[in-house]
Amino acid sequence: MPQNDPRDPSADLPWFDAPLDDPYADLPFADEPWEAAPPPEEGEWAGSPGVVPQGSFPAPGAAATPSRSRTATAPGPATSAPSRFATPLEALKTVYGYDAFRGDQAAIIDQVVAGGDAVVLMPTGGGKSLCYQIPALVREGTGLVVSPLIALMHDQVDALRANGVRAAYLNSTQTAPDRAEVERAYLAGDLDLIYVAPERLSNVQTLALLQRGTLSVIAIDEAHCVSQWGHDFRPDYLALGGLAELFPGVPRIALTATATRETHREITERLHLPQAKHFVASFDRPNIQYRIDPKVDVRTQLVSFIRSQPEGSAGIVYALSRSSVEQTAEYLRAQGLDAIPYHAGLDTATRAAHQSRFLREDGVIVVATIAFGMGIDKPDVRFVAHVDLPKSVEGYYQETGRAGRDGEPSVAWMAYGLGDVVQQRRFIQQGEGDRATKQRQNQHLDAMLALCETVDCRRANLLGYFGQSLSGRRSLSEGGGTDRVEGRSLSERSETKGAQEPGEADRVEGCGNCDTCLTPPESWDGLIPAQKLLSTIVRLQRERRQSFGAGHLIDILRGASTEKIRKFRHDELATYGIGSDLTDAQWRSVVRQMLAQGLMQTQGEYGTLTISEASGGVLAGTTPVKLRRDVVTRAGASGGGRSAKRSAAEALAEGDRGLFEALRAWRAQTAREQGVPAYVVFGDATLRALAEHRPAQASDLVGISGIGEKKREAYGEAVLEVIAAEG
Ligand SMILES: Nc1ncnc2c1ncn2[C@@H]1O[C@H](COP(=O)(O)OP(=O)(O)OP(=O)(O)O)[C@@H](O)[C@H]1O
Ligand SMILES: [Mg+2]
Ligand SMILES: [Zn+2]
Q1: Which of 133, 316, 405 to mutate to test the pocket of ligand 1 (most atoms within 8 A of CB)?
Q2: What is the pTM of this model?
Q3: How confident is the model at residue 647 (pLDDT cuts 50, 70, 90)?
Q4: Residue 123 CA: which ligand is closest?
Q5: Which domains does the chain have, with CATH numbers?
Q6: Is 353 helix (H, G, I), strand (E, B) or coil?
Q7: Helix pair 418-430, 435-453: axis angle to 10 deg
Q8: Mutation test of ligand 1: which of 94, 121, 129 has the most ligand atoms closer than 8 Å to its C-beta?
Q9: Closest ligand 1 atom to Cα of 257
Q10: Least-confidence region, from 506-510, 617-621, 703-707
Q11: Would the CB of 285 count as within 6 Å of ligand 1?
Q12: Which of 423, 542, 576, 710 has the fewest Cβ atoms within 10 Å of its own Cβ atom?
C-alpha cells in the first residue's frame, strides 16, 4: 500500500504499521494430515441418520473381522478392564484428591455411568475431562477418548498417569512397537483410558482392535470440530457418528467449550446423539476480568499492562498477522520480558519448542496468531492480551478463555482502535466469498464492535451473545433445536466463587469485574460532531468527487494546516475548522464509534469513509448519536487490576509466601527431572493449600485439594521435606 496515497487512512494513523500479510493463512494445525481433505457437501447428513458417509467407516461386520495385519492384534480372548471404583465420588477423592463435584459434573457422570448419552457444553476450564474420565474408572472396560489434539495427547496421558490412571494413546507420532504395546495392554484389560486421534478411527484395523476389547464409554472431546462453519473443523469428525452403530450399548458423551446454539445442534445431529441428555453450563468465567482500552500506542500500552500484572505471570498475546507477532515479540524481549513468537509460518520444530517452553516453564509470554491455543490446557495462564481486534465474539471468548483455567484471578485485556474497524471492514470487503458470507462476517464483526463500545457490563454483553444472562440461565424456550436443555450456572453453584442465589442474581446489574463495572464510562451526545463529519464527507463527494480516510477528514474539521490540505485547497471547504472544539483523539473516538454503530461506512481498497443508509437520520437529526467517552487508563494505575493482582502467591498471608516459593522451586525441578509440565506435578492451588496448612506428616496430606493417592505416594515425602526445611 503506498504510504503517501491521499486516500490511505493508514498514512494518518501512527499505529497502523506495516501492511498485513494474509491473516487467514494462520488456521490452526495447518500441517496436520486432515487439512487436505475436502469438506463434505452441506446436507450430506440430512435425512440419513445412521448412514455413515461413504469412505469413512466400514460396515460393522467388516470391522469385526479380526485383522491379520502387522498391528499384531492376534486372535484370542480379550479381557475387559475391571471397574476400579464403586462410586464416582470415591474415584474423585482417591484419584484426583478433590472433595466435591463442580456444577453439573455429578449429574453428567451419573447419566453416563448409567449407560446414557450426553452432550456437554461447558466453558474452558469448567472440568469437562472428569465427565468422561470418571465414568471410565467406574464402569467396566476402557474409556475411548477421541481428541484432535495430537500434540497434547502426550501431556494429557502423563497427567492421568501421575494420578495413577492407566492411560495410553494411539496416534501417528508413535513408533510401531509402542503402538503394539498399547494394543496389547488394551486387549489385556490393562487400560482405563485410551486416547485416539480422529483419523485413526477411520482405519479398519483400529476399529477391529477396539471391537475386540471392551469399551466403557466413548468420549468425543472438542466436539465442535464437527461443525463445518467453525474454524476448528476436522473432516474426520464427521465420520464419528458411525461409532453409534459400531459400539451399540456403549454410552457416548460429546463435549465442547463452544457455546453457540448452532454448534450445539450440529453436534447433536452429526454425532448421532438423538437420545442424549443435554447439559449447558453457564459460560460465565467469573475469575476473568475483561478490559478493553482505546488504542493509542499499542506496544507501550501492552508493556505497561504486562508490567501491571504480578511478576512472572504466564500470558498469551494475540495479534492478527505473522509480522505483527514477530515484531511484538521482539519488542517485548527488548523490554526485558520473556516473550516468544508462535505462528504457522514458523517451522514445526520451532513451534513445538516454543509451545513446550510455554507449557513447561513458569512465566513465559507467547505472542501468537490464532494458530495457537486450542487444547492448550496450561491451567495458570494469568492474562490474555489482544493487540488486534478478533473477528468475532466467539473467537474473543475462546481466546480469552485460555486465561485462568485454574479458577484463579486472571485478566483479558484488549486495545482497540479506529484502525481495527477500518482494517477488518476492508478485509471483509476485499475477501473472497459471496454476499451471504460477507454479510455473516459483517454481523460477526458488528457483534464484536458492540462489545468493544458498550457502556454497560462487558460480561453481560458477552453472555448475552450466547443467549445467557449474568444469572447464568439460558432461556429454555430458545433451546436451539434441542429440547432438553438444562441451563445451570457453574458460578451459581460452586461454593468457592462467591455464589449468588438465582433470584438475587437477576437483580444484579453488572458483574463488578470488568472495566465498565469498575470504572463506569460516561456517555455523551455526539450528534453535532457526527453531523459535522458527515457533512464534510458529503461535500467532498458532491463538490469534489473525493473521498478520504479518517486522518485527513479530522485535519479538515480541526482546521489543520497540512501540506495535503493546502494541496487540495480543503481550507476553502465550508466545514474547514468547524470541529476545533474536539481533540484529535476525541475525533478518532467519534469516527470509530460511528463506524461501529453503522452510522457511516468504509469503502474501497483504502477504507475511505463514506455515508451509509443510517447517515441520513443523523444528518436530519432524527437518529440519536450516543457515544462512549474514552478513558485511557494507565494500565496498572487504575483500579482495573485490583483482583487481578491477587495471584495464588499474593493471596497468601505474608508469612506463607516464602514456603510457597520454595514449593514452586521444588515443583519446577521435579517437573524438569520427570520431563513433564509443572502443573502435572501440582497446580498452584495445591501449592497454596500446602503453604497454608503446612502438613507435618503423611496423614496430614489427605484432604489437600489436588493430592490423590498416587501423588501422595509419589511426592508426599518430598513435599513434607520442603515444608520441614522452611520451618
Ligand atoms: N470437581 C473439581 N474440583 C476441583 N478441581 C476440578 C474439579 N473438576 C475439574 N477440576 C480442575 O479444573 C481444571 C480444568 O478441568 P478440565 O481440564 O477438565 O477443563 P475442560 O472443561 O476440559 O476445559 P477445556 O475446554 O479448556 O478443555 C483442571 O485443573 C481440573 O483438574
Ligand atoms: Mg478439555
Ligand atoms: Zn461487568
Answers
A1: 405
A2: 0.74
A3: low
A4: 1
A5: 82-280 (3.40.50.300), 288-473+510-518 (3.40.50.300), 523-628 (1.10.10.10), 649-725 (1.10.150.80)
A6: helix
A7: 170
A8: 129
A9: 25
A10: 506-510
A11: no
A12: 542
